[in-house]
Amino acid sequence: MQWSWSLGRLFGIETRVHASFVLVLLWAVLSSYDGGPAAIAYGLAFLLAVFASVVAHEFGHALTARSFGISTRQILLLPIGGVAQIEGAHMPPREEFMVAVAGPIVSLLLAGAFFGLAALTGDFTPHHFLGALAWANLGLGVFNLLPAFPMDGGRVFRALLSARMGPLRATEIAASVGKLAAFGLGAYAIASGRTMMTLVAIFLYFAASGEANLAARRFGRGPADPALWRSMSGFPRRGGPDRRDR
Q1: pLDDT digits (tens, 9 = 90+) for 165-219
Q2: How far apart are CA 211 and CA 17, in angstroms?
Q3: Annotated catalytic, 58?
Q4: In percent, how much of the chain has pLDDT > 90?
Q5: % helix, strand, coil for the chain, step of 5
Q6: How many Å apart are CA 212 and CA 149, to the nearest integer?
Q7: Using CA of residue 78, residue 80, residue 84, residue 88, what is the dihedral sign?
Q8: Where do the H-state alpha helices sit in 68-166?
Q9: Paired strand residues for 83
Q10: Which one is catalytic: 58, 95, 96, 211?
Q11: pTM
């Protein structure tokens, strides 16, 4: 991808960081500037630790996808988070469910680990480095489980719907819920003056719209098409065994 730099490969998957990430580093420096060099170093270290946690979250998706024989082109770090660019036009519901939920599970496990380490110091508050990192991972895991498509929770929601009504209608419903969630998140962000959250809300809205348009082109035959249903459904269907024509 243009305007991004490679950070190397892990498990055979390249991780890249977008050039706009420099703005996040600059923000971390400026927000800690009044505290002197020690505060700047602390702010940068915490920011990098959070984004390392984001990378772990994305590897949860990528490695789970690999267990189903699906490869990941790369993991891209953006100022608003990370994206695992997984190959394949569409996954059956069962696989999409497992891949989507893997990232939040990694974040929640990291939160538990950091809370455990923070317990050794007796300080669980966000004012302590380990405590703050634990709360950040807890927030990352819980936030991504919200049913706001195309976030992880929204993909879990679509996977459950796809098992009953096919991928096209499931994507339309999940995208509508995602756009409503984006409006709500944006309203809260504007009211509370949270600039980064406002950007996330804008991204969610357009991403949900884009996913809905893509599904309309990809599944133009409609979810009722038997051939489409057989190829995309990953959950057992009434009246027969769980079977995939892949």
Answers
A1: 888 888 989 999 999 999 998 999 999 888 778 888 888 888 888 888 887 887 7
A2: 23
A3: yes
A4: 35
A5: 65, 10, 25
A6: 10
A7: negative
A8: 93-121, 129-144, 152-165
A9: 76
A10: 58
A11: 0.79
